[in-house]
Structure formats: structure tokens, C-alpha cells
Amino acid sequence: MTKLSQHACEACRADAPKVIGQEKQELLSAIPNWEDVMVDGEEQLRRVFTFKNFVEAQAFTNKVADLAEAENHHPAILLEWGKATVRWWTHKIGGLHKNDFIMAARTDELY
């Protein structure tokens, strides 16, 4: 099986199906450091990354931003001293799409 981070993201439509059930559990198992959370009624993937200082956290957030821009799929990123919190979800469908899991896996690789 191909590593999740190597899967291709697909253009997402407003009527694209959300990831649920067994598929969601399999995808979550591929990104064990991520939490499945509800924020404002939308299911999202969240992970807090820790660093030695603000500069390292900022450099990481810039890498995530570059990754997001390259795929035209943008997360919420909270930058703080020594940490960055990243949340992935698909705005068009108000929840999780396979693309979110792929991007979470790629974010892990940047770390």
C-alpha cells in the first residue's frame, strides 16, 4: 500500500462525501498523532507540534503554509511560542475528506 502522504489530493466539490466509518478509522490509524475533533460543529483533524522556541515554530508554520498553497488546501494554523497547532478539514463539505488525512500525513513529514 502506498504511504498516505504520497497519495494525490483531488479537487473537492461541495457534494463530495465526507470520510466516515471504517475508512475514517483506517485513515486515522495512518496519522496516530492527530486528534479527530469537533470545532464549531465541523469535524477536523488537529495536532499540536512543539519546538524549542518561537523561530522554529514559525519556520514550521511557513513550511505548512507553502504546502497548503501548493495544494490549494488551507488549514488553520495557530503559532505560539514553542508550538504550532494545525487543523485540517474541508471547508466546502464542513468536515473531513480524504485530502485532509493526506495533508495531515504530509504535515507530519515536514515536522
UniProtKB/TrEMBL annotation:
Its EC number is 4.2.1.96. It is an enzyme of class 4 (lyase). The keyword Lyase applies. Keywords: Lyase. Transmembrane segments: none annotated. InterPro entries: PCD_sf (IPR036428), Pterin-4-alpha-carb_dehyd (IPR050376), Pterin_deHydtase (IPR001533). This is Putative pterin-4-alpha-carbinolamine dehydratase. The lineage of its organism: Bacteria, Pseudomonadati, Pseudomonadota, Gammaproteobacteria, Pseudomonadales.
